[in-house]
Amino acid sequence: MKRLWGIEWTSGASAEAIQEYDWIDRADMITVTDCSRLVSKLKEEKHTLIEDVHELLQTDLSVLYGTFTDYGFTSEAGRHYFLSEMILSFRLTSGDPLQKQMCRLQTEEHLIAENDSVLFTDADNFELMKKMADSYGVCIEFGPRQTE
């Protein structure tokens, strides 16, 4: 998973203003960069053209659920980005295989996306996921909290 920034441009931003910088990726009016200096520079020089700056998390996803677009976007290059403050990543790490499978099924209704064994849910679901894992006797490991 990579940590990046998404610059959300206002509808008044011209294509020239946006294209004068090197971008990793883009989607509609959001451009993606890995350079914190560029973000700072843009906030100073182009603040009237910037709607918002989002911290992003880019990862390869194998499954997208219906709510994915509430928490992120897919770029023109087909990469998937989350608005990092909105999501929580976790793994079900150990426990009885049947109980682990049952726990996984119960968490599914709260999932946004998944890749391999990493599952993604709303950041507010921390306690809920912990309680589900506890109720099945399954160990759960959370990724770094995005607010830390």
Task: Report what the structure shows.
This protein is an alpha+beta fold. The protein has two domains: 82 residues, no CATH class; 57 residues, Alpha-Beta Plaits (2-Layer Sandwich). Helix content is 28%, strand content 38%. It has five helices and eleven strands; from the N terminus they run βαββαββαβββαββαβ. The strands form two sheets. Strands 2-3-1-4-7-6 form a six-stranded antiparallel β-sheet. A five-stranded antiparallel β-sheet has the order 5-9-10-8-11, with helices on one face.
Shape: elongated
Q: How many DSSP helices?
A: 5
The secondary-structure element order is EHEEHEEHEEEHEEHE
Strand order of the largest sheet: 2-3-1-4-7-6
Please report which band the strand proportion falls in: under 5%, 5-15%, 15-25%, 25-35%, 35-45% or over 45%.
35-45%
Largest sheet: 6 strands, antiparallel
Brief synopsis:
This protein is an alpha+beta fold and 148 residues long. 28% of the residues lie in helices and 38% in strands.
Structural topology:
Elements: E1 2-9, H1 15-19, E2 25-27, E3 30-33, H2 36-45, E4 50-59, E5 63-64, H3 68-71, E6 72-74, E7 80-83, E8 87-94, H4 97-107, E9 111-115, E10 118-122, H5 126-136, E11 139-142
Helix pairs in contact: 4-5
Offer a few descriptive terms.
148 residues; Alpha-Beta Plaits; 38% strand; 6-stranded antiparallel β-sheet; alpha+beta
